[in-house]
């Protein structure tokens, strides 16, 4: 018996619909290389391009034994602000960095805490390295909430931050940490004779073998600051940071470096809504959970004056100014931008972002990956602006 024409049409449509749904379910998802919604500004993901090492001179691991008093090591340290309860996460970070780099160069580790380190913390961290470990207590005057901060105003501000769903907004200790990382850590007596540091946080990962002395390279190439990840900040955490910066710059125009990165700091084209909400600041910043830097910059008069201005303004507590935007704005305005270096050869992850170069020295991360999180995170990548205004050095 012949099938009626309407039923034949319905069967054809159903088969087509089934085929379409199967195609959508099993097709390969589009590849995203980190440019997000603005891929045209960065047509080629640079970490997908083969890369070896930065230009010489490069100091290799000769004579760097931990017990060699005449080693080529310079005044530098690996630096971590960490609590006793973060021990497991700190061991993860240490194992990665020792495996990929420090087991060859044996630079000391310096750990900071606002309470004494436990004996377990000291014993287990020292077991991870042949290098010397230093365990330092932060002076109370460096950690305490400043006397000019109004506690009632802080409480009200914390409620507002919580209502805006600002992460860590109500936590006093988080505000203290941001202030300490911004303008206090380099004043600690244990760092008095130390020039360079590499900041390391718990639960981060390093993926690539680094076969040269990073600190020597910074010194030989006259670099002030090194980063791996460059992001946008949440503008609701820093609404008055840029207005306060403009007040400071109006009083100190002489601090603006002639070869500055101000365009990167104030860009309004790529994410105009961020610039509007932050009142003139792009919110682009170096993600400072990784930073390799010369403390001479933080100790300089321009930076010390800038930090003092911000500290008195109260935004570390009444808002949620982080050390990342504070450091980044200062570097973008006061420093020669050619002295800021993207360490594209250092494979790094701090959840949820990566720096994953294409190199035979790397293993454990996906080449070119910016994030393994949700798609909306791709728009947080501010590297395109840095490459546009400064370059890829």
From TrEMBL:
Origin: domain of life: Eukaryota
A family per Pfam: Glyco_transf_15
InterPro entries to which the protein is assigned, alphabetical: Glyco_trans_15, Nucleotide-diphossugar_trans
GO term, biological process aspect, one: cell wall mannoprotein biosynthetic process
CC annotations in GO: Golgi apparatus; membrane
Single annotated GO MF: alpha-1,2-mannosyltransferase activity
Keywords attached to this entry: Glycosyltransferase, Signal, Transferase
Signal peptide start-end: 1-25
Annotated catalytic residues: 291
Similarity field: Belongs to the glycosyltransferase 15 family.
PANTHER family: ALPHA-1,2 MANNOSYLTRANSFERASE KTR1 (PTHR31121), MANNOSYLTRANSFERASE KTR4-RELATED (PTHR31121:SF7)
Name of the protein: Alpha-1,2-mannosyltransferase
Organism: Letharia lupina
Taxonomic placement: Eukaryota, Fungi, Dikarya, Ascomycota, Pezizomycotina
């Amino acid at each position: 018996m012949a099938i009626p024409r309407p039923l034949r049409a319905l069967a054809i449509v159903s088969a087509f619909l089934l085929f379409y749904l199967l195609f959508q379910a099993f097709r390969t998802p589009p590849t995203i290389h980190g440019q997000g919604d603005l891929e045209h500004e960065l047509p080629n993901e640079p970490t997908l391009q083969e890369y070896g090492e930065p230009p010489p001179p490069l100091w290799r691991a000769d004579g760097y034994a931990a017990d060699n008093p005449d080693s080529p090591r310079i005044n530098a340290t690996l630096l971590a602000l960490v609590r006793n309860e973060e021990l497991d996460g700190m061991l993860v970070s240490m194992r990665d960095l020792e495996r990929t780099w420090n087991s060859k160069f044996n630079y000391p580790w310096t750990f900071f805490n606002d309470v004494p380190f436990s004996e377990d913390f000291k014993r287990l961290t020292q077991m991870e390295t042949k290098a010397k470990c230093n365990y330092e207590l932060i002076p109370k005057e460096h950690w305490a909430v400043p006397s000019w901060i109004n506690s009632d105003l802080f409480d009200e501000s914390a409620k507002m931050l919580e209502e805006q769903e600002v992460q860590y907004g109500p936590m006093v200790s988080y505000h203290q940490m941001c202030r300490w990382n911004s303008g206090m850590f380099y004043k600690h007596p244990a760092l008095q004779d130390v020039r360079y540091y590499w900041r390391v946080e718990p639960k981060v990962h390093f993926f690539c073998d680094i076969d040269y002395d990073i600190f020597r390279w910074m010194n030989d190439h006259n670099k002030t600051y090194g980063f791996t990840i460059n992001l946008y900040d949440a503008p609701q955490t820093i609404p008055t940071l840029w207005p306060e910066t403009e007040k400071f710059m109006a009083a100190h125009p002489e601090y603006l470096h002639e070869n500055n990165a101000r365009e990167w700091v104030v860009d309004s084209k790529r994410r105009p809504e961020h610039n509007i909400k932050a009142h003139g600041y792009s919110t682009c910043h170096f993600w400072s959970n990784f930073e390799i830097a010369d403390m001479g910059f933080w100790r300089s008069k321009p930076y010390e004056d800038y930090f003092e201005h911000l500290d008195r303004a109260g935004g570390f507590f009444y808002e949620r100014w982080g050390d990342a935007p504070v450091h980044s704005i200062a570097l973008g305005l006061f420093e020669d931008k050619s002295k800021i270096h993207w360490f594209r050869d250092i494979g790094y992850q701090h959840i949820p972002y990566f720096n994953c170069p294409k190199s035979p020295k790397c293993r454990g991360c996906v080449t070119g990956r910016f994030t393994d999180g949700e798609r909306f995170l791709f728009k947080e990548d501010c590297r395109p602006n840095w490459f546009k205004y400064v370059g890829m050095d």
